[in-house]
Specification:
The structure holds five protein chains of five kinds.
Chain A (H helix, E strand, L loop, with lengths): L1 H31 L6 H17 L4 H24 L7 H23 L14 E2 L4 E2 H23 L1 H11 L1 H6 L4 H27 L5 H16 L4 H22 L5 H15 L14
Antiparallel strand pairs in A: 1-2
Helix pairs in contact in A: 1-5, 1-6, 1-8, 1-9, 1-10, 2-3, 2-4, 2-8, 2-9, 3-8, 5-6, 5-8, 6-8, 9-10, 10-11
Chain B lengths: L4 E2 L7 E8 L9 H16 L7 E8 L4 H14 L4 E3 L4 H14 L3 E2 L24 H15 L5 E6 L2 H14 L6 E7 L7 H9 L4 E5 L2 H13 L5 E4 L6 H8 L8 E4 L13 H13 L9 H19 L2 E2 L1 H8 L28 E7 L4 E3 L4 E2 L1
Parallel strand pairs in B: 1-11, 2-3, 2-4, 4-5, 6-7, 6-8, 8-9
Antiparallel strand pairs in B: 10-12, 12-13, 12-14
Chain C lengths: L2 E11 L4 E11 L3 E6 L5 H8 L6 E6 L2 E2 L5 H6 L2 E4 L11 H8 L6 H14 L1 H5 L10 H14 L4 E5 L7 H18 L2 E5 L3 H7 L2 E6 L2 E7 H6 L1 H8 L2
Parallel strand pairs in C: 3-8, 3-9, 6-7, 7-8
Antiparallel strand pairs in C: 1-2, 1-4, 4-5, 9-10
Helix pairs in contact in C: 3-6
Classes of the chains: A mainly alpha, B alpha/beta, C alpha/beta, D alpha/beta, E mainly alpha.
Bound molecules: adenosine-5'-triphosphate (2 copies) and magnesium ion (2 copies).
One adenosine-5'-triphosphate sits at the interface of chains D and C.
Chain lengths: 289, 379, 237, 260, 324
């Protein structure tokens, strides 16, 4: 029983990092109706920027704020420079651009910072809580995740900008007709997604250590979590991320052993999606004729 | 003087050496080795080359993918016409190209993998390993355990690939009849974000000994996680990941106290070598030839030392730079010691012995440096 | 009589070959103009060019200023609302969100709230369905939504592409009554594309007949209504 | 009015709701074989929903639909076309990137047999079928004046033309019952006259029974043998055009008194 | 005498191309021949993925899995039962046809991103399953299987690489012929219809469930055959050969080559075979950054792929001279 509880707790801890990555994916999805496969590498790159700032002597929170701001700007720049020219291209062409971006960021990070792992400081230092199975940092990550979730929720629910952003992603032509600056909405969406990604990266790095491949696996789980919860629902994405963490742990510990735990977790997720094709908490959208 | 004899890739002025390395993909951390080798050859060339011949080093990326390794190797052999393929990295990649190279009678020399299958002169006379193989190392820990903690309950964490499984096999072989000491095994995939869940499971097994068969990132995670969940087993760490600078420091030196590992190279981050002449030469070389390289990264010692061995072999070849002679010379290294090998560790090969380095020394981490104990031992 | 919208030499199309070959027309200040024409004549294309959805050549002036180089969003922000053909519903948003988007550029919350009341009074079904996913409305209901969304912008000029499309006869009359009212009471100018030529000519003061991208007849609505050819093919008597 | 035989379509007590909205409320009516029946009603009355039930896109909560005496609700969606019900859509549902010719050819799908293997191996069976289809499609394309645009991608054609493509596509399925959802939408007077002739031709020459949803009263009242009126999902009138046109409930809910 | 029709031009062009393809192995080194052979196997795999994604609109991020299954079927048959190499090709195709169809059944309910995730999962799970101890006795576990390279039959005066090239060329021609036939008529139209408007497709009598699963099967069959060919060419299969990266590469191939285009599969295969090497030549420091730039540049310049560009250029050329 104790072991079970510990598996659940450590699953939640890992799930916490999936959840925050899932939030970044939800953000970009709401703004562009695409899932940005380069999101993880962008977060990784932001984290290296933070590391560089801290290495240069900046205090943690200074580097944190600096990184979030810089990532926001970089996100906008990427949209304007890299994504805009393929704005009218077929979806898969855009996906290929994402893949291009992914390999570029990964490769450049490896080139600049090498592939040796680096430790990254936590804003929530100190020992463990809850009987030693959750570190203070992991708890902090959950707090941050919930904070970001709340902000996103308020943003999309109550601000005209949030609504305009969703509208621009869905129907750019009609959005223009009501006066929405669609181009800026996309850029802003990228900026916000990059900023959230930066937060995610800085929360993840203390756990998995900083290296250019740090986000590869996590992005996948974040993706799975976001879809499991419903990609149009930030709260669902967080729940989905946490669920993936726990599910993976439990299937590893009790179902099949560690060798196939990922496989089993994925089969379960896909199974759930087959039954609920828009995710657990996603809205069922009807396209009628 | 003996008559000059050349195979493709060698001439009066040049020796072409090919290499494949994962400069991209999940194993790209190893790319440092390929670069270090190139940097060492640059130094040799600056110093006049080998018997007056410059080394042309052609290193290609295979992204740790066997099909790509085959393609790149064929390019090295058929297009670039290298004399030999040196330090090709990774068990899967080397397995993929072994048949081709042996069929073509091209030396596959000093492969950069610790799998056990590379020392098979009968079956694959053109393939030779270099580093102590994983099974040897694992057997050393097993022997230590049988001698010092015969009633241990052991938990294992290994990477689910040939590297992990080789260690596993060596360890079990080493324990022999007492393999039942192993009470828990867990594996992970390189794509896993963390191994936290595995660590929790292993702790729950009640084990008091932990054999940590992981690559650097996961090793650091495991060391930290064990500390965080207050699990204090006798902790064996495979030498793949025992770098003070790139594993123990990120994990937290205080959390690594008491770790047991083994080595055959000098750890560049270990203060005990600060005044060692071999280390100082290495450092000078790093500064001059590999300035982008990471001074804490043992891969830079590994590549440096492996390249030194090849240089020795090529020197021994003299003017007979045929592929046959390269293999012959590679198989006649006797008691060779190198500046960055641990004192006492010697390189020995023979027509029936394709395992150049077979000794390692156990060591324990004291919070600052590794303390060697005992003498270099073979498996 | 000054014109709020003046178009001259309008050439526009999709890709290489133009669809419109130099149109000249105008919408009087506070007036109603209508464009008639057969299927594929270029009526929709004309409206798209005016609101910048396709890049035109030629000159388009709105309230005296050139708008033919402006982006669609800037044109909308100047007060031109467009009820597009096919309705342009945000199908995955709720009815209320669709309407809120209509008022996106406005900064007078009180006025917006009043306009919500106004469109709900016009189309009570929209109020009943304010939380419904707009894409699940019936075709006619979506048409009502599109018109309401345009009204929420508080436009100075309304571009209407077949507003009666898919609406029940009763509602069609209602819509025309509304157009007449906002035109008369609020001075909103209207450029109307409509298949129901009888109603359109009744509402409009100016009328243009389009054939394969050219204005072939232009004049007062009454004159056009009296034209034999127009009568036969567009009015049916 | 020349009706052959009994009811081709028989709808009994059909109900469907979406959340709180009752879109169809115990709707019952029938259409005799060979008739042209108009279906009218205010926006949101449930006309398209009824069509969607007939083509099995929606699953009614109650009621039955008999087509040629057999229960329709037992058939899977993709069998509907083969059973003999063809339709067009209110807001167009064409395959936008395909040419007009290919769009129309898709209509033949349900009448063809050759499968993956026959096509992959280019067996004569498959080729014969394709040739026969092409012939039939060419005829219809000519009939509906689509010849000049046959090779053009359908997405860029004028609305009215696209509607004709849909009609052609539906006819290639060789329906016994044709469901037309607002075919006159966006057509001018002259074009509506053509449409009227076409609908009659389809019934008279091809023997197809037609169920027509339309807000264009002139068209409905002149072409239909029978008119059914819906309001809030309920039948409020069912009879000859004249009867329905004069029906007080219909006037109140739908037609209104013509503006003075 | 009339001028040759477009069709005749096309036939002549293809014949010329075929002639060129047959001459190639005698003109280039055996290393290049080997690369071309491997490109041929990619072309078949891309064709398979293109049928699914380009024509039918189902996005798969996991086709590497079917490539792997095909490769393993070939390797296991050759290694365990001494089945001749040529006979493993149809076997791999059949196994993948079944596997693909079965996977297609649940995948039916998933669309867009959700399908992408499911296929992603497939790509991730496959190497793990191949390693699994339960299958180890067949798959060789993490060690993989080394297989023999075939010799040319009937004493043909070809070396091994040349023979394999012609063998692969023959298989590829057969597969392209099958694909062309399949896509030209009723089936191809149904696939596109499902992609463009599923509801309308169903209303026209297309059984979406069956067609989608069957397409998955057919697509997997093509890719599996390519995998078998690839295994024979490389002479080695191992779980590490079939990572997620392979699946992504295949997707890159079809998009760069051109979606829903037969020739696109060939262009795409050449791209994924040769461009990484070119990138590697340009920058040793960060070759994948160069590769990424290539990808992005391709999408800027040819958003509809090489085939799209070729088609547009051909259309322009065909139009312009007739204009007065
Ligand atoms: N998106 C498009 N791409 C290419 N051509 C188009 C596009 N939209 C319209 N066209 C072409 O432009 C011409 C004019 O179309 P337009 O929609 O302006 O006509 P319309 O007068 O509004 O007709 P309708 O009565 O059908 O609405 C037509 O020939 C049509 O084929
Ligand atoms: N999938 C759905 N989800 C929710 N409501 C729906 C759905 N489909 C239809 N409705 C509702 O059912 C009612 C009937 O719609 P339907 O489309 O049948 O109307 P209609 O009679 O065709 O109207 P119109 O003449 O405007 O096309 C509408 O109020 C609509 O909002
Ligand atoms: Mg129009
Ligand atoms: Mg309707």
């Amino acid at each position: 029983m104790e072991a079970f509880l510990h598996q659940v707790l450590s699953g939640l801890a890992t799930g916490g990092i999936y959840a925050i990555v899932a939030l970044a994916l939800v953000m970009i999805y709401q703004a562009t109706h695409l899932v940005n496969f380069a999101q993880g590498e962008m977060a990784m790159f932001s984290t290296y920027l933070a590391w560089t700032m801290i290495d240069a002597g900046l205090p943690y929170w200074g580097a944190f704020a600096g990184t979030v701001a810089l990532s926001f700007a970089l996100g906008i720049a990427i949209e304007r420079i890299v994504i805009r020219p393929v704005g009218n291209a077929p979806v898969l062409a855009v996906v290929i651009v994402f893949i291009g971006l992914l390999v570029i960021l990964n490769s450049v990070a490896g080139w600049i910072y090498t592939y040796t792992i680096k430790s990254f400081p936590s804003p929530f230092p100190g020992g463990s809580v809850l009987g030693g199975y959750l570190s203070r940092h992991e708890l902090g990550v959950m707090g941050v995740t919930l904070g970001v979730l709340l902000l996103l929720f308020l943003f999309f629910r109550f601000t005209p900008l949030g609504l305009a952003m969703r509208a621009a992603a869905q129907n750019p032509v009609s959005s223009r007709l009501v006066g929405i600056r669609v181009g800026w909405m996309l850029a802003l969406g990228w900026g916000l997604a990059a900023a959230i990604g930066a937060v995610a990266g800085m929360m993840v790095a203390p756990i998995v250590f900083l290296d250019p491949n740090m986000m590869a696996g996590i992005l996948l789980y974040g993706f799975a979590g976001a879809l499991l919860g419903g990609i149009d629902n930030p709260a669902g994405a967080v729940a989905g991320g946490l669920a993936v963490g726990v599910l993976e742990n439990l299937s590893g510990a009790y179902l099949v052993g560690t060798e196939l735990k990922l496989t089993v977790a994925l089969v379960l997720i896909v199974g759930v999606l087959v039954v609920r094709p828009s995710g657990l908490f996603g809205r069922v959208l009807v396209n009628r004729v | 003087a003996a008559q000059k004899k050349y195979s493709p890739g060698a001439s009066d002025s040049e020796i072409k050496v090919g290499n494949i390395n994962p400069y991209s993909g999940p194993a790209s951390a190893y790319g440092a080795i390929g670069k270090a080798i190139g940097a060492y050859f640059a130094k040799i060339n600056d110093e006049g080359g080998i018997n007056g011949r410059k080394i042309t080093y052609i290193t290609l990326d295979d992204g740790y993918s066997p099909p790509k390794a085959v393609e790149q190797t064929r390019r090295l052999v058929e297009q670039d016409q290298v004399l030999l393929v040196f330090q090709s990295l990774g068990t899967p990649s080397n397995t993929a190209i072994q048949k081709y190279l042996n069929g073509r009678k091209v030396p596959q020399l000093f492969v950069a993998t610790g799998a056990t299958k590379w020392g098979d002169p009968k079956g694959h006379p053109w393939t030779m390993g270099w580093q102590p193989n994983y099974q040897t190392e694992a057997r050393i820990y097993a022997r230590y355990l049988l001698e010092n903690k015969p009633d241990a309950k052991v938990a294992l964490l290994y990477q689910n690939d040939d590297y992990g499984k080789d260690y596993l096999k060596g360890f079990k072989d080493g324990l022999g009849a007492k393999a039942s000491m192993i009470v828990a095994e867990a594996s992970y995939e390189v794509t896993d974000p963390t191994i936290d869940s595995q660590m929790v499971t292993l702790k729950a097994s009640g084990a008091d000994t932990f054999f940590n068969i992981t690559t650097p990132k996961f090793a650091a995670q495991a060391i930290r996680k064990a500390h965080d969940i207050d699990w204090k087993p006798l902790h064996f760490l495979n030498n793949v990941s025992n770098s003070v600078g790139s594993v123990l420091t990120p994990a937290g030196l205080d959390k690594a106290v008491g770790l047991v590992s083994s080595y055959y190279l000098k750890d560049p981050t270990d203060p005990q070598w600060a005044d060692d002449p071999g280390y100082k030469d290495w450092l000078a070389w790093m500064k001059k030839y590999n300035p982008d390289g990471n001074l804490t990264d043992t891969f830079n010692v590994f590549g440096y030392s492996a390249a030194q061995t090849l240089v020795q072999v090529l020197k021994q070849c003299g003017d007979d730079l045929t592929r046959e002679n390269v293999m012959k010379q590679a198989a006649s290294l006797k008691g060779l010691s190198q500046p960055m090998l641990l004192p006492g560790v010697k390189i020995n090969t023979g027509p029936d012995d394709f395992y150049p380095i077979e000794q390692m020394q156990l060591m324990r981490f004291n919070g600052k440096t590794w303390e060697l104990f005992g003498t270099p031992i073979g498996g | 009589m000054t014109a709020i919208l003046e178009v001259s030499g309008l050439v526009a199309g999709y890709g290489a070959a133009p669809v419109l070959h130099g149109l000249d027309f105008a919408v009087p200040q506070g007036g109603v103009a209508t464009i008639l024409g057969a299927n594929g004549a270029g009526k929709t294309t004309t409206l798209r060019a005016v609101s910048g959805l396709i890049r035109p050549a030629g000159e388009i002036r709105f309230a005296g200023e050139r708008i033919d180089r402006l982006s669609t969003e800037d044109i909308a922000r100047r007060g031109i609302a467009h009820v597009p053909d096919g309705r342009g519903t945000f199908v995955h948003l709720s009815v209320e969100e669709n309407l809120r988007l209509g008022a996106y550029t406005r900064r007078d919350p009180a006025g917006v709230a009043r306009d919500f009341e106004r469109v709900f009074a016009l189309f009570p079904v929209l109020q009943e369905r304010r939380r419904q996913q707009a894409g699940t409305l019936s075709g006619g209901e979506q048409q009502m939504l599109a018109i309401s969304r345009a009204l929420m912008l508080r436009p100075r000029l309304l571009l209407m592409d077949e507003p009666s499309f898919g609406l029940a006869p009763l509602i069609v009359r209602e819509i025309f009554r509304i157009m007449r009212a906002i035109n008369a009471e609020e001075g909103v100018a209207i450029l109307l594309v409509e298949q129901n030529a009888g109603l359109a000519l009744e509402l409009a003061s100016q009328a243009y007949l389009l054939e394969t991208g050219r204005v072939v007849v232009a004049g007062s609505a009454d004159a056009l209504g009296a034209d034999d050819a127009v009568r036969r093919s567009y009015l049916g008597y | 009015m020349a009706l052959r035989g009994g009811a081709l379509l028989n709808v009994r007590d059909l109900s469907i709701r979406f959340g709180g909205i009752v879109a169809l409320d115990r709707v019952s009516f029938s259409v005799p074989e060979g008739a042209i029946a108009g279906l009218i009603g205010p926006n949101g009355a449930g006309k398209t929903t009824l069509f969607n039930c007939l083509s099995r896109l929606y699953r009614p909560s109650e009621g039955t639909i008999l087509f040629d005496g057999r229960p329709l609700l037992a058939a899977p969606r993709h069998r509907i076309a083969a059973l003999g019900i063809g339709r067009t859509f209110q807001n167009l549902a064409l395959f936008r990137s395909m040419s007009v010719l290919d769009n129309v050819r898709i209509g033949g799908h349900c009448r063809m047999r050759a499968g993956f293997l026959a096509h992959a191996l280019a067996l004569p069976r498959a080729e014969r079928e394709e040739a026969a289809l092409l012939e039939q499609v060419r005829l219809l394309i000519d009939l509906l004046d689509l010849g000049p645009v046959a090779e053009r991608p359908v997405g860029a054609l004028p609305f009215g033309t696209q509607k004709r493509v849909e009609l052609a596509r539906a006819l290639v399925t060789r329906p016994r019952l044709l469901l037309l959802d607002e075919p006159a939408g966006g057509l001018n007077h002259e074009e509506v006259d053509q449409l009227r002739t076409r609908i009659r031709d389809i019934r008279d020459r091809l023997g197809v029974t037609v169920l027509l949803v339309e807000h264009h009263m002139n068209l409905v009242m002149t072409v239909s043998d029978q008119v059914v009126a819906l309001d809030f999902g309920r039948i409020i009138a069912d009879g000859t055009p004249a009867e329905v046109q004069g029906d007080a409930a219909v006037v109140r809910a739908y037609l209104g008194t013509p503006a003075a | 005498m009339t001028a040759p029709s477009a069709r005749q031009w096309k036939v002549a062009g293809l014949a010329l191309l075929l002639l060129f393809a047959c001459a190639l192995p005698f003109l280039v080194s055996s290393y290049r021949t080997f690369q071309l052979t491997s490109a041929l196997s990619y072309a078949i795999a891309l064709l398979g993925l293109n049928i699914l994604t380009g024509w039918n609109g189902q996005i798969s991020l996991g086709h590497g899995a079917f490539y792997a299954i095909g490769a393993y079927v070939a390797a296991i048959l050759m290694d365990r039962w001494d089945v001749p190499y040529w006979a493993t090709i149809p076997a791999a195709g059949l196994v993948c046809l079944g596997a693909g169809f079965l996977f297609g059944l649940p995948a039916l309910r998933l669309e867009g991103l959700y399908l992408a995730l499911a296929t992603f999962a497939l790509a991730l799970a496959t190497p793990q399953l191949l390693k699994s101890k339960h299958l180890e006795q067949w798959t060789g576990g993490v060690q993989g299987i080394v297989i023999m390279k075939p010799d040319p039959p009937f004493g043909l005066p070809l070396d091994q690489d040349q023979w394999l090239y012609f063998f692969a060329l023959a298989v590829a021609l057969a597969m392209f012929w099958l694909a062309r036939n399949l896509l030209a008529g009723r089936i191809g139209r149904a696939l596109v219809a499902i992609r463009e408007h599923p509801t309308a497709a169903e209303a026209m009598g297309i059984d979406i469930a069956f067609y989608k699963s069957a397409t998955f099967g057919v697509s997997a069959m093509f890719t599996g055959i390519a995998g078998a060919l690839g295994a024979i060419v490389i002479q080695f299969v191992a779980p590490d050969s079939f990572t997620l990266f392979l699946s992504i590469t295949l997707l890159v191939g079809i998009v760069v080559g051109g979606l829903a285009s037969l020739s696109g599969a060939v262009w795409g295969a050449l791209f994924i075979q040769f461009i990484p090497n070119v990138a590697d030549q340009i920058s040793k420091a960060a070759p994948w950054a160069i590769y990424g730039l290539f990808l992005i540049a391709c999408m800027y310049l040819m958003p509809t792929g090489v085939a799209g560009l070729v088609r547009a250029t051909a259309a322009r050329l065909a139009r312009s001279p007739r204009r007065p």
